Amino acid sequence: MKWVGDARLAAGPEATWYLETAFTPGAHLGTVYDDPTTPIVVTSVEEVTTIRVPSGRLVVDAPWDDDDTWRYERGLPTGPPRELAVRIPPGVYRVEIAWTAGPYEFFGEHFDGVECAATRLRVSDAAGRVGDGPGRR
Question: Would residue 102 be called left, alpha or beta, if left means φ above 0 and alpha means ψ between -120 and 50 degrees?
Answer without folding.
Answer: beta
